[in-house]
Amino acid sequence: MRVGVIGLGLIGGSIAKACLKAGWTVFGYDVNANVMPMAADHGVIVNKRWEEWAQDVDQIVLSVPINKVGQWVETILESSHGCTIVDVSSVKTSLSAAYAQIRSPFSLLSLHPMAGKEVRGFVHSNADLFSEHPCLVVKGTGLDPDMPVIEQWMSVLGSVPVWIPLEQHDTLMAIVSHTPYLISAAILVLAESYEARFPLWPHVVGTGFLDVTRIGASDDQLWQEILQANQENIKETFSAFTHLVQKWNEDIQQGKWPKSLGQSAAIRRKATPKRRLSDRP
């Protein structure tokens, strides 16, 4: 397989390394010229202009900012004779117009690997980043996914496929990813607000605090982009979270134990790897 990766940050770089590990030929491009030599050191071919290799690859992975996907789709359609465009954006609904442009001899595979780190950049990328994590295969994009291609990608990434309708993707991400980021970041801001009274707080935190706040330490510029692209769903889910916390606060202020806290352990067990849905619908 010959694949090109546009955008060699944490996600795109990890995809490129996973493809190299699988024995694929990988071409790469990033707007940051400083990234290209690092990618070359790992075996990514960067000594050809992307417009040149775009005519020869089987697939092109787009791992670029959400607001740049449409522009890149248009450019690829003009620069290639036909290939599979693999979009790995974390928000999908806003890309419907870009997806609608893709027609034969091109095809579209909309994926969302559910793994990441709180740091950015190719230097932090890892071929095993997606191993044993879910990878969402988005349905309803107007182009039926090619099953052999999907199976290849799941094998290369080491991921567990979960098929999800396009119209449900962004709402679910607001619940399981975007609102958790806001909550995590809020805990960090809360802790910092006690700095004057308790300057030792950073030195006494345990693994629980670090686990809960890992995602909150992610790059806020990246998250602003994501939250803006999915703002309507986030408004709904964050409002629901706020109402839940308000109810808990009422109970706590009255010395009561919020009843729903007793459900939390059982709820989390639903999200363990053994319970993930991997069967094809």
Structural class, judged by helices and strands?
Answer: alpha/beta
Instruction: Average the pLDDT over all residues and give the rounded result.
Output: 93
Cα distance spanning the termini: 27 Å
How large is the share of residues in beta strands?
A: 5-15%
The main pleated sheet reads as: 7 strands, mixed
Instruction: Write down the domain tally.
Output: 2
CATH architecture of the largest domain: 3-Layer(aba) Sandwich
Individual helix count: 12
CATH superfamily of the largest domain: NAD(P)-binding Rossmann-like Domain
**Integer-rounded radius of gyration:** 21 Å
The oligomeric status of these chains comes to: single chain
Order of strands in the sheet with most strands: 2-1-3-4-5-6-7
Helix share, percent: 40-55%
What would you call the shape? globular
- What order do the helices and strands follow? EHEHHEHEHEEHEHHHHHH
Query: Which consecutive residue ranges, at least 5 long each, have pLDDT under 50?
Result: 275-281
* Main CATH class of the largest domain: Alpha Beta
**How many DSSP-defined strands?**
7
CATH fold node name of the largest domain: Rossmann fold
